[in-house]
Write a structure and sequence with these properties.
The protein has about 300 residues and is an alpha/beta fold. Helices cover about 40% and strands about 10% of the residues. It contains twelve helices and eight strands. α6 packs parallel to α7 and α10 runs parallel beside α11.
Length: about 300
């Protein structure tokens, strides 16, 4: 069954499509609205954005135009050279990149680089009115001592936190899955911060309101599961959210297992009202229809 056919049968499959929180009426709304270029998402209790790298080779400004049409409010994961133009279109930069997930502070040979790049990114974020900069642990390496690696991460982040606090920037530290090595960016085998409970503990050890976890729902589902309970129990430690369907880092559709309406409702119930970024890798023939659909699934909560 193709996706358009699936939309047309949405009333019969609403539970499968959108999770138990979705109704037949909601499924019919998506059927009619997802292909309607005049439709914009209406629920702004969460600020939906998009991770730009997922939609390559589509150029950033074309994607930005689609974002404004859909009702998304920002972009991240795009080159800083596009920031000015994207912001001129009325979108916010929801997250600024930094040192990447491979060369992280768990490895002593990258710590100076991490501190330098985080410093630059904090200053850039402040300049463009963005409140968040991403960071990572980096990859395990031969001969790594776990406790020394933890100390290296904490020490490196603490070096840049005074600047982040001064500028009003929050560092959001991303947990990633290390299980799925089937294709590039599905997962990151060897990533040190692959246990979300360990990552929450690192956030607690930093002990600053300007250092929080980037809770990627897709990665957490793969590595730890029990997503809603973890959100409820640790929401004060979370500073940003990412989405994608599992398995396959796909759309939030009938081919994946995560109940997004229920999860988004749980996030809203914690009082979180900031950015949640669509970070799935489109598999549909029409990637913008896929983006509109996934945004609308989250809009239903």
């Amino acid at each position: 069954m193709n996706r358009r056919s699936f939309f047309r049968s949405g009333a019969a499959a609403s539970v499968t499509t959108l999770g138990m929180a979705a109704t037949t009426a909601s499924a019919l709304t998506i059927e009619k609205s997802a292909a309607d270029p005049a439709y914009k998402i209406k629920n702004h209790r969460l600020k939906q954005t998009v991770m730009g790298w997922c939609f390559k080779p589509m150029d950033t400004l074309t994607l930005a135009k689609h974002c404004t049409d859909i009702g998304l409010v920002g972009m991240e994961g795009i080159d800083k050279s596009s920031y000015k133009d994207v912001m001129a279109m009325g979108l916010k930069i929801s997250l600024v990149g930094s040192h990447g997930f491979t060369n992280g502070p768990c490895n002593p040979k990258f710590r100076d680089e991490v501190v330098s790049k985080l410093t630059d990114s904090i200053n850039l974020a402040a300049d463009v009115g963005c409140k968040k900069v991403i960071t990572f642990t980096g990859m395990k390496f031969e001969g790594m001592d776990r406790e020394e690696a933890i100390k290296g991460c904490l020490d490196s982040w603490k070096k840049v936190l005074p600047l982040a606090e001064q500028k009003g920037i929050t560092l959001v530290f991303e947990h990633l899955n290390s299980r799925d090595g089937s294709k590039p960016m599905m997962g990151h085998p060897g990533y040190f911060g692959d246990d979300v409970d360990f990552c929450f503990d690192l956030v607690k050890q930093i002990g600053s309101p300007n250092f929080k976890l980037l809770f990627d729902i897709y990665h957490v589902q793969i590595m730890n599961g029990d997503v809603i309970r973890r959100i409820r129990n640790n929401h004060e430690l979370v500073g940003h959210y990412h989405t994608a369907g599992n398995p396959g880092r796909c759309e939030l559709d009938e081919n994946q297992e995560i109940n997004y309406p229920a999860i988004v409702k749980a996030i809203i119930d914690t009082g979180y009202d900031d950015f949640i970024a669509q970070e799935f890798m489109p598999t549909w023939q029409d990637p913008i229809l896929a983006l509109r659909h996934s945004a609308m699934v989250c809009d239903l909560a």
